Each structure stands twice: as C-alpha cells, then as structure tokens.
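Q: Given only this backbone (724 positions), what sequence would you predict?
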C-alpha cells in the first residue's frame, strides 16, 4: 500500500495546529548539513512524539515524505492502515528491505530509523565503554540494520552504474522492475546519487512527569489505563501541555561509497550476479564488519550531539555526591563552576540558557531552572530540603527501577545517563566534584571580587573626566576581610555617591570583628555620564556581586544600606529573606522632598522624543547638584538616573510587606533630601515582627559621615550584635 498524499497533508495540518497551540518550542540546528542526496536519518528514540514530529519536520526541511520502520505490533486494524498510509513499514513486512532500498535508490523519500530499535526510556547507553541498549531484561548493542540498508542501497547503485557503463540493459531492467525505479531514463540520474546516513539527536528540556490535562482526559474515557500508557501520558503529556524545548540537531552526513572499497565488494560489483535473491544476499552481501563500524560511528555522532542543559548538570552533581547531606550553597557553587568550565568545552550542542550569565545560581535570587529541578527531585522522593541542606534518599537512589517507570520515578538517573557519552563534559564535571568545598568557595570569591574590580576599572577608564571624576580610591569597591570571623556585613552607598561614602562605617564594623564588603553600584564613582546609562537592575546586580563575595567568606551576614543603598538593602532582604541575619535601612528615599524628582520621567520622555527628531537643543539631561560630601558625590545629576531611582523605589514600596528578616529602620528627623515620613512608613509597611525604628535628630541627609555619624554607627552595631 502506497502512502496517501491526502492523509499525509491532513496529518501535517493537524500537527501544525497541535504544535502551534502546544507549549513545545522546536528548535532545529544545522539543518544545512542535510545533503540533496538519498538519506537514512538515524534518530535517538526517547518518546512517542518522535514518530510523528520527525517525519513532519523532515518534510518541512527536505520537501520529501518519509518512510519509517515501526514495530509489527502497531500494524493491526484501522491504526495499522493509518500508519501504512503515513509511510510506516512493519518490521515484519517481507517487502521491507526492497521498499526502503528502492526509495533510497530513487531518492524520492527520506528514510527514518531509530537505531536502538525501541524507546530508550532510561537513556542508559554506555556500559563498559560500549553502546548497549536495554531490551527485555538484557543489554544488547544497537541494531546495525540502518547501516546494512544504506550499504546495500549504495551497492546496488554502484552495480547499476557498472551495468549502465557496459550496456547490460536486460540486467538494468531487472533492477528497475524489482525496486520500482520508473523508466530506464531514470537510471543515469539514480547512478549519479550517493546514499548517506544522517545522524540526528533530539533532546527534551525539561523532562517532567506530572498529572496533566491529556492523561486526565484519557483516564476519563478509559478508567484503568495500562501502567505503561499511563507513564507515557504523564511524561509526554506534560511536555505538550506545560511546555518543553525540543532541540533537533543534525550531524554531518556519512557517505556510503567509502565503505564499498574492499576487494570482495569491488569484485561483487563487477561480476554477473544481481544479488536480488535472499541466498545471494546472505552469501556475499552481509556487510557485517562495515555495518558494525557504521553503527558505532553514527551512534557516537547521535549522542555526541545531546543538547546539554541545566538539568543535566544538576542531575550529575546530585548523583555524584557521596554524602547524604548536601549544603545548598555548595551544590549551587559546584553547578555554577561546572557550567563555567563546560562553557569553554567544544560541545556540539548546548541549551541557549547555558551560555547566559549564571549568577542567579549564586545570588540566591529566584533561579527558575534550579527550582524546577529541585521540585522534580522532591516529587520523585529522591531528596528533601531543610534549613539550607539537601538530604538524599539513599534508598531511592540505590533502587533498581523498572525500565518503563524510570522516567516518572527517577528523572535524575535518566538525565545523568543522557550525558554519560559526552566525555569532555563528564571530565569537567568530575573535576568540579573532586574539589573540596572550601577551595570552590575561595575560587568563586576571587572570581566575583575580580569581576567587581574589573567593572570599576573599565567604567572608570571609559567615563573618566579630567577635573570632575574623583580619584580611583573613592569609587573602588572595598573588601575588609577579617580572618577567622564568621560574621559579615554588606554595605551599600547612596545615589550619586561611591563606596567611600560607607568606608567609615565599614572600618568601624571591621574593628568590631566583622568582615565587610563595600559595594559600588554601577554608574557611580566614575562620572555622571556613566550613571546616565544605568538602570536600577544594574544597581541591584552590583549588590549581588558583593553578596556572592561575602557569602563565600562568612557564615552569617547582614546588609546595611544608606539612602538609595537602603532601598537596595530592603529589596535584597525581601528576595533573600532566609540568607540575611538582619538588615539596616538608613534614610531610605521612599518619599523625596525635591518636587522636581517627580518630573524626571516626563523629562526623560521629552529627551527621547527630541532624540528621535535628531534635535540636540531643548533637552535637559543633567541638573546641578550641591552635595554634602563634595569629595565623593557628583556635581551633576542625570535626569535618567532620577527616573530610575523613582522607578526603583516603587518596586521597593510594593515589596515591603514581604520583608521578614529582623530590620532596623533609621531615619533622620529633619532630612532635607528624603522626606522624614519615609522611615516610619517603611517601618509600618514591612512584614517582619522583629523590627525597630530609630529616629535620630539630624538636619542633614548624609548621617553616615561627619558630625553625629558615631551615634549611627553605635546603633547599627548594637542591632547587628543582637541579630548575629
């Protein structure tokens, strides 16, 4: 039965609709490698989705319909007829090889084969250095059938070329009739082609097994689904309904002519036999050695193209931990450094998110990939998490899982198995896992300290203005490390200021036994033009870098901020509530006295409008500033910076009820910059119960320096001693 063009079109339309309305994101890589030659696409097999998605994708990419092999059990009743009309061929079809070789000779169909011969649900592929597939209780090598079919097709092509050259028309007609090659005029075109095998890898991310709309619907109509079907609906239904990235990687084609160079094959091409009978084929055309070489070549290529993603890294680290109790910080440090190492490895494929900045792993802000993986491991009963530690369930890790249940019962093992063939990736992961935790902490501390200094030096050189920029020591972030101290304080300066603004407080706390890190917000300590280009998110990330340094230096820490730095301290405490022993806000600008600040956003919009008109006059980009600390602060205030400050404080205001760490709110009574109602308002709005409000008499804003600052220092110290 020939494939039905009408049914293929209807199926394609149905798949178009399903893919459009599902949350699956199909990303194709290196499709330009597909040659305009007859191809067998050898594809790894993990889900049922491949049997429908890959013919659909191959048709989109090549314009050809696809022939594929499927297990004989599918070919019964109406579904079997449907499969046949889509181009599927039963593994027990006596005409199987003739149909596929005919298609490869003509080049009018793509051929798709799963070389494992079945779904590999556990993704366990390598055993004692060899590719081995689980099958009915034993491990066996992958099938060599794809290679044999490709070799035989190319052999017949070479044989036809020999017959054409020698004018053997009768023998050519036998080939044309046997393989349904059309007219004799097609022979010259056919002999000009070359059969090839194209390795293809499909990687899914994330893989989760959950109750979903599809399996609920199936259970509604069929009350007792077989366990295997239930498992497949949980895994693959979740992919469709909740979203999955499907990375399809095409490898370099493997051409068959180079495998037909042996003396025996050359003699068979030149003799009188046609090799159309089973006896002749089994006697002379078994190609066993060549097919085995081919199998290892394309299997290595297929699994070498696995798209490495966060789940692979997390799963490998979790599996490799020998201890039952794992500190979450250590887990994240290892994941971060592992990703940092493998970014320099020549990987054939990696998920796009792996090339992005991974700092959220270390900053303890929400890292969606990490949270999703941990939730999956918890739901499988593999781990529990309590008070900053991960506890492995050793019984679950040591258990031997049923092949058809492992995707929903232990996804960690599946993911670990998937990257096992990637030698370079595994070597780098092992190197990270062998290192002691203290060495990793020191490495990360040095990395982030160096990164912070590098950003400052780059910005200072780029924006330096002679006679206006302050000396380097004013703007450089400072780190006062007290050996053998377990307590640390993160200090954050104010708007238009620099780390030097917090140095006096930092040195005071250092002398009292604290390790101190003085943050530099990007755009500060250089020139107003630098600040003009920054967003509040960059200020927040600046604090995060200091946080990473301090977290990998001490066991307990607090965050203390002045003015805008106080706003950043408040937001840090909201986002990392369980990581800070306490926080201190000093003159946070929830309400600003200067009415002009409320016009900043309007002025920015006006400036943007003038930019679009390419008009330079009429713009107001900076306003004059007369600072208290003239050796630290800018004399020009960028309007864009004020607009960012306004936007940032709205974010802080919205999040205050979420703050639950011990808090000290300090407010100057007659602050000329920040409306003195800011302190009491913050105190009332924050959600924690352990909170203090301290109102100090002061008629200036910068109370962390100069007259009266010692009172502030002592109040901060008393609070820190209480909470730490």
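A: Predicted residues:
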């Amino acid at each position: 039965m020939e494939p039905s063009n009408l049914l293929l079109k209807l199926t394609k339309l149905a798949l178009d609709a399903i893919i459009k309305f599902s949350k699956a994101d199909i990303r194709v890589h290196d499709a330009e490698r597909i040659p305009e030659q007859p191809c067998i696409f050898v594809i790894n097999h993990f889900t049922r989705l491949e049997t429908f998605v890959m013919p659909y994708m191959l048709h989109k990419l090549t314009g050809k319909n696809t022939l594929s092999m499927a297990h004989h059990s599918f070919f019964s009743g109406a579904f079997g007829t449907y499969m046949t009309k889509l181009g599927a061929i039963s593994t027990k079809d006596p005409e199987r090889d003739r149909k596929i070789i005919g298609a490869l000779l003509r080049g009018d169909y793509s051929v798709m084969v799963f070389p494992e011969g079945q779904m590999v649900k556990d993704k366990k592929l390598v055993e004692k250095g060899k590719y081995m597939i689980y099958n009915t209780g034993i491990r066996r090598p992958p099938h060599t059938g794809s290679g044999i079919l490709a070799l035989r097709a190319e052999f017949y092509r070479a044989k036809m070329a020999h017959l054409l050259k020698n004018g053997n028309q009768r023998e050519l007609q036998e080939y044309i009739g046997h393989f349904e090659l059309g007219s004799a005029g097609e022979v010259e075109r056919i002999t000009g082609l070359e059969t090839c095998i194209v390795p293809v890898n499909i990687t899914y991310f994330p893989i989760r097994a959950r109750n979903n709309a599809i399996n609920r619907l199936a259970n509604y109509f069929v009350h007792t689904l077989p366990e295997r079907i239930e498992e497949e609906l949980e895994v693959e239904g979740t992919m469709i309904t909740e979203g999955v990235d499907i990375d399809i990687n095409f490898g370099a084609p493997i051409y068959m002519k180079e495998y037909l160079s042996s003396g025996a094959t050359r003699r068979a091409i030149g003799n009188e036999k046609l090799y159309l009978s089973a006896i002749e084929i089994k006697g002379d055309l078994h190609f066993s050695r060549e097919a085995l070489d081919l199998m290892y070549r394309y299997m290595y290529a297929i699994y070498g193209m696995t798209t490495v993603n966060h789940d692979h890294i997390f799963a490998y680290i979790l599996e490799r931990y020998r201890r039952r109790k794992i500190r979450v910080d250590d887990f994240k440090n290892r994941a971060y450094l592992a990703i940092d190492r493998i970014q320099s490895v020549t990987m054939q494929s990696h998920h796009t998110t792996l090339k992005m900045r991974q700092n959220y792993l270390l900053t303890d802000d929400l890292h969606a990939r990490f949270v999703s993986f941990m939730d999956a491991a918890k739901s499988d009963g593999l781990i529990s998490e309590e008070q900053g530690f991960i506890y492995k369930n050793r019984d679950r890790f040591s258990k031997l899982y049923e092949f058809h249940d492992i995707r929903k019962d232990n996804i960690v093992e599946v993911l670990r198995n998937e990257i096992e063939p990637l030698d370079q990736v595994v070597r780098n992961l092992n190197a990270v896992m062998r290192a002691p935790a203290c060495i990793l902490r020191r490495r990360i501390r040095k990395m982030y300290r160096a990164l912070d200094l590098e950003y400052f030096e780059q910005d200072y050189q780029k924006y330096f203005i002679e006679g206006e920029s302050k000396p380097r020591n004013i703007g450089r972030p400072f780190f006062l490390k007290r050996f053998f101290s377990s307590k640390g304080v993160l200090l954050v300066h104010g708007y238009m200021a620099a780390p030097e603004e917090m140095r006096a407080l930092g040195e005071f706390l250092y002398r009292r036994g604290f390790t101190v890190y003085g943050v530099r917000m990007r755009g500060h300590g250089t020139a107003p033009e630098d600040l003009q280009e920054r967003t509040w998110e960059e200020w927040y990330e600046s604090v995060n870098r200091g946080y990473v340094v301090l977290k990998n230096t001490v066991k307990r820490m607090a965050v203390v901020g002045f003015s805008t730095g106080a706003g950043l301290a408040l937001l840090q405490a909201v986002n990392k509530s369980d990581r800070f022993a306490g926080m201190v806000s000093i003159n946070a600008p929830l309400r600003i006295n200067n009415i002009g600040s409320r016009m900043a956003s309007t002025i920015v919009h006006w400036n943007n409008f003038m930019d679009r008109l390419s008009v330079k006059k009429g713009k107001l980009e900076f306003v004059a500033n007369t600072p208290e600390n003239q050796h630290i602060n800018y004399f020009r205030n960028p309007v864009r910076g004020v607009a960012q400050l306004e936007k940032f404080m709205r974010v802080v205001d919205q999040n205050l009820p979420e703050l639950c760490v011990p808090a000290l709110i300090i407010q100057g009574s007659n602050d000329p910059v920040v409306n003195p109602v800011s302190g009491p308002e913050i105190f009332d709005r924050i959600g924690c119960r352990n909170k203090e409000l301290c109102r100090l008499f002061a008629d200036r804003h910068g109370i962390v320096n100069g007259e009266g600052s010692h009172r502030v220092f002592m109040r901060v110290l008393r609070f820190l001693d209480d909470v730490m």
